[in-house]
Amino acid sequence: xxxxxxxxxxxxxxxxxxxxxxRLPWSWAEKRLQRSRSYWLTTVTTxxxxxxxPYWGVWLDRTLYFSSGSRIRRHIQKAPEIxxxxxSADECVIVEGSVALETDATRHxxxxxCYNEKYDWNMQAGPGEFYAIKPRVAFGWICDGxxxxxxxxxxxxxxxxxxxxx
Length: 166
What we know:
The protein has 3 helices and 8 strands. By secondary structure, the chain is an alpha+beta fold. The protein has a single domain, classed as Pnp Oxidase, Chain A, CATH 2.30.110.
């Protein structure tokens, strides 16, 4: 298997002086994407409204795979851009990218095996039943609770990763 190059890390677009010039490594975000049990996905409805729901999925080869029904299929057909984020706001990872049905039978078999192992499940799904989200950009930060009055701060870690076009 070819090793994918790491995305380019820089700072999110926030006013100058607000963030320190420190960045999280991509491996930090990827570890959290791999181990997350649920992923919040946001699509755009056919009427143009945001639609968010938690889904099970697997992060494999820098792609999030998940399965869903016809409502999401309609959303994606109209607007294939999607956003995902993990459950934790303390170790935040947000991924934006485009989504399409995964139709490659070999990859589908790998995804299904990983999905069933991760969730201790016996899902029966044929090719074309998993969606693949290819990231364009990702954001991550750690809220460490060291701000004034115990509030959270993230200026020590806020990172934006930009992925090479594939």
